[in-house]
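dumping these here so i dont lose them again. two proteins, back to back, each one seq then structure tokens. dont judge the mess
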Amino acid sequence: MHSPTPGVAFARRVPPFLGAVTVAALSGTIVQTQINLADILSLGVPVTFGDRVATTGADLVGFTPTLFGLAFVALLFALPTAGLLARGRSLAVRAALFALAGWVGLMAAFEVANAAAPMPTLIAATRGWAGAMAVAASGALGAWAYAYWTRLWVQGRVAKPVAGRAG
């Protein structure tokens, strides 16, 4: 068996990369929404379960694209760095390095975005360290997913659909 050409190897990593960014953006959106609602609740404003569901749904539509952009740039740098550090390491160490890189990448993206934003913070939930660390955990989750998917896809262990077979 031969190694794939650089173009093929790169192309195999695109779907897992986009999946990782999507996982990070969706999970980060949900986390930041709940942090913001907890802040509202701490002000004495009642927040019902219905409010949580409606606000989460609205943020998934309205805020996810913003976080997708931040996660895209963060993971674009973090994942190749983790890949270099993870070469030749065990699966557990590889997964941990990717998760750490995703978390650090998103934390860095928040810092850069907040420094460039005209308002004090671009994402209110990341105003404090606890909120920023919690939302950045979505970067860890997305990067971990990438590590898992590329381990399978890049090595060709993902089953290919059989032509003419429903499925």
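---- next one ----
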Amino acid sequence: MANAVAERAARGLDDELRRELKRYLPRYENARAAVLPALHLVHEKLGYVSPKAIEQIAELLGLSPGEVHDTMSFYQFFHTPADPLGEHRVFVCRSIACSLRGGENLLEYLCRQLGIRPGQTTPDGKVTVEFAECLGACDFAPSMLIDGVLHKDMTKEKIDDLIRSWAVRGSQ
């Protein structure tokens, strides 16, 4: 495990990702405005943002690594090499509408079935579960966002079906 973390921490931007980031730059008024989109792009491609990637983003934008890291650490959205994203990313909505319709219970149920807590990834690397303060789908509460797709009117049965489809070995 320690070797895998060290390998991920040392992983930086490949040429393709570097070119993609350079194409982003003209869209923004200044370098600081491009930090968050750059972090999102790297996170999407790697499943985490490594210290090496932070240094390379800073270099591309003409900023210090500290400035890029400050932006990254402000948001809980980004994962690190020690805690990479799973194959599937699940956000469970905790808005008032979803909570009133059982969203908190579904978050608890999902985590219990997978044997993890919110913010963690299953040991097999299949699923990362996180909470979202609002998914903007109050009409369909409780809702979840899974791999960018909104799942509406969620139930324990629907969660069980999802877990089966992921072939996750949780604590079921």
